[in-house]
Amino acid sequence: MNEGITIQNLHVSYSGKEVLKNVSFSFKTGNLIGILGPNGAGKSTLMKAILGLIPHDRGSVSIGDRPLKEMRKQIAYVPQRSNIDWDFPIIVKDTVLLGTYPKLGLFHRPKKSDKDWAITCLEKVGMEEFANSQIGELSGGQQQRVFLARALAQNADYFFLDEPFVGIDAGSEEVIINMLRDLQQQGKTIFVVHHDLSKVKEYFDELILINKELYGAGPVQTVFQAKNMEKAYGMPFTMAGSMGGGM
């Protein structure tokens, strides 16, 4: 696909309180885009509003010249681990197989080819040996890799990941970022809600910087500047300070 994603004048409120104000940006396809901002800035809210998971007061989301609702089958979403019921009784390979369902259509059961594809996706994230394990028995990093495999199984063009690197081991983080880079090389577009400022330049080529409103959207070298970070985070900031964790 060669269609960009455009957000125009997005406003979101909860219980009458505005939490995102007049957010607009546009990105071409084939980018790995980080969404940055302090705690409570509205990063996850922005992602959910883009995906239509929560309502917005006004504004629009489009991919190319098509509204989001026409593109849902081309979009994969990995929520925060804290929002997932890990006690649900399902094994790993069936979790990944769920990724094939959006394109199967109503009343169609997965075929052998779909099941084989699910195993292939597990292999891509190094989790095939856990195919028959209960999802709740895995470590945090292993769970996150399984949910990335489920996203891969969708054969999507757009990937949205909400804090995928929180609470996981270094090995899993490396597997995930390498997989995201591979997807980018394939022309996929990836949005990642992120908090570790020390990895920003290493991981992303484009950034969205928000704190209820937009403080920057574009190339990392343009957005990830002390003056922009100070405005968004509301505190003095030096680029040396970015070597710490999330602020």
From TrEMBL:
Keywords: ATP-binding, Nucleotide-binding, Transport. The keyword Transport applies. Residues 5-237 form the ABC transporter domain. GO terms for molecular function: ATP binding. The keyword Cell membrane does not apply. SMART domains: AAA. Belongs to the ABC transporter superfamily. This is Metal ABC transporter ATP-binding protein. It comes from Lentibacillus kimchii. The lineage of its organism: Bacteria, Bacillati, Bacillota, Bacilli, Bacillales.
